[in-house]
Design a protein that fits this description.
The complex is a heterotrimer of chains A (418), B (256) and C (139).
Chain A: E1 7-8, H1 15-41, H2 56-71, H3 73-79, H4 90-110, H5 118-123, H6 130-153, H7 161-184, H8 197-224, E2 227-228, H9 230-260, H10 265-274, H11 277-299, H12 307-334, E3 343-347, H13 361-384, E4 388-389, E5 391-392, H14 394-397
Parallel strand pairs in A: 2-5
Antiparallel strand pairs in A: 1-4
Chain B: H1 2-23, E1 53-58, H2 68-77, E2 98-105, E3 111-117, H3 125-129, E4 135-137, E5 143-145, H4 155-159, E6 166-167, E7 186-187, H5 193-198, H6 204-211, E8 217-221, H7 228-235, E9 251-254
Parallel strand pairs in B: 1-9
Antiparallel strand pairs in B: 1-8, 2-3, 4-5, 6-7
Helix pairs in contact in B: 2-6
Chain C: H1 23-44, H2 53-60, H3 78-86, H4 107-120, H5 126-138
The chains are: A mainly alpha (418), B alpha+beta (256), C mainly alpha (139).
Amino acid sequence: MKPVVHYSAIEGRSIAYWGLLGTFGLFLLLGLGAVWVMEHNGHYVTGMNNQVIWGLPHVFAVFMIIAASGILNVASIASVFGKKMYKPLSRLSALMAVAFLAGGLMVLMLDLGRPDRLVIAATYLNPKSVFAWNILLYPGFFGAVAVYIWFMMERRMNKYSHQIGLFAFVWRLLLTTGTGSIFGFVVARNGYDASILAPMFIIMSFGFGLAIYILSLMATCRWTGRELGDSVLRQLKNLLGVFIAAMFYFIFVFHLTSLYGTENHGFENFILADGGMFTQLFWIGWVLIGLVLPIAIVYHPSMSKSRTWIGIASAMVIIGGLASMYVIIIGGQVYPMPLFPGFEVSSSFGDGTIASYSPSIWELGLGIGGIALALAMTTFAIKVLPFIPNSLSDELMDPHYKPAEDVVEADAAETNAA
Amino acid sequence: MSEQKIDQYRRDFFTKATTAAATGAIAPGVMLMSVGQAQARPLDEPVSNKNRWGLLVDSNKCSDGCNACVTACETENGWGSGSTDEQKSDPDQKAQWIRTVTLKNKLTGSEHQLPMMCQHCEEPPCTDVCPTGASFKRADGIVLVDKHICIGCRYCMMACPYKARSFIHEELNDQSPDVPRGKGTVESCTLCVHKIDRGDGTTACAEACKKDGHQAIMFGDLNDPNSEISITMKKHATTQIRADLNLNTGVRYRGI
Amino acid sequence: MADSVGPELKINRANGDKCVLPADEMRKDHMKHLKHQRDETMHDGIRTKQFSLKECINCHANKDEADKYIPVNAPGEFCQSCHAYTSVKLDCFECHATKPRDTAFHPIVTDKMKAFADVHDAPETKSMLDTIAKKDGAK
């Protein structure tokens, strides 16, 4: 008989723990300070303008929101698809999903022109607005995942965790579809008007979420001295490789479809060839760092066995993810809208020209503040509740485990998650 | 007793003004602009879909380099040169309710210009996407922002195919009493709704264009078959900008 | 009377002695009426004067020694003094003008109004009312 997985809260009394929590808290405070500056003065202190309406905060917010639903995937694989190995990984997955959604929403809400009127978003709801659908989807996600965590932790409720896990999985698909549709339903802009954005966002959420999860898991196990089996990590990194390949496929189809229609040639030319920084971000940030290099690493015969390289590949997926959001969100706005086909247009309001956008330190501060909130929530929660298994050794986790056959890679164990 | 007398003045004035406007019997020598069928509504009567206010822009008549409609809008609605506000905002960040766009034909190189503003769509994408319903269309076809419930999410600006909307990037203090506008909310051309409600029967831009002798902008009721705008649109071919989106705009163009 | 409570209000009696409703009703319910009116005006184009914020300001804005209007949300002025006393945030003036415009009407309409005023012997704008009030006061 296999030994049972036990969970416990981390001790969290070391200087390193408080230092980590304090660092996240500090960045959160800096983020809130940036919000104060933005809201006190108005958005003129930001790089946003009437052409680039959604700036860096939305890059962070959308990234975090779709990543949040992706992080939950690890739990879904256990509860929905019945993979036993993922079960001990579920609690942390659900926790981080909630934390990242909270962080993303914080950024989104605090970038509003009138965040003081947030309650109006709940009291006046326009049923036709994709945004309003999302406003209903967010609390639903929090609720479903909170119940899910409770069912996983409460022994009497364990037997229902499959059902609630399934519900949360369906809900997260809806949530990401909703997020993707915020852009996909915008018919006015060449860069957005595509229904493929919704499924593409779902695939991207798989990749970003898993990358964040792998890094966090490696860091947690290392810093708390809990064992993380090679086989566990190998499965996770293989899955990451599949997700990256899927992302690649969607980006390929998205641009191929777009390229086929002559009306989109201008926009495609801008993103793929002519757009300066946006073209660089697309090819170097998104494609090379976000897709090609990490997939090469996770399938490389020797690199893929090194924890350091798996960590680096995960970090690359995250960087590529932020780059992809920047290209999609900002790139879609700076390119002029097609008002008068057949004419070259000019005006005092930026018609016919590529808009300029240079993000301000306040916007960056707000975005990082959101990430800090998510990480601080996670760091704090694992101290008060038993989210982390005492051990994730191969012996416990892997149903096909055979002791001492593989060479132990002691050298690669030095992973640095940050 | 002077207070009472003045009170009496005020009351008389408003009663008479209202009745006068309602019956169309304006004082001698003064005519209502008869561009649109400007029957002033009683103050307490809600707007209805009997009217659909709109504009017809004849870009052939729009004179190159002329900016009179823009300036008139600024003065009337208190933005741009019509206000001392928005000093801290970049040019990119300042509000623009109406702008002149120069079009250069890619094939022939010929150039002409036309004014662009909110197109007051019958099916406005901005109202579809607005999470709170702050973007809305009045029964008489005017698309407005209810700034009381606008949270400043700017999704309407993303969705508007005409780039007609502006976000206010700083605190304002120099608003016109008729045109409230403020930090953190979105705004756009109101079709001079306060003038329409007052029974002026025209907009600042149409008025200014007429005054300058171009008559490129015609205001009127698209639902009234006998209005000048309806008659002109029956006689001449007109176009909608981005007609492919099928939004049935209230602002139509000739000569694009 | 509730008049003994709260701050001393600067009320310009030259514009008449009565508000659109009895004072204690206004004190309690002004926001209820304003909110009701705001939705009617915004969405239905109903522009009756009784609870119009613009009319409130026309009446309640005071002038300084230089005969210039003081914003109603300036410290010590009508709106602000009470709101400061009760610590209630004033949100109206994030967007709404805080003082009347001397030319609250568009030039063209002013012509119309002038002609109307000539015929009906009625003052045209609030500033004219003020002038008359001053003249009468002098008598």
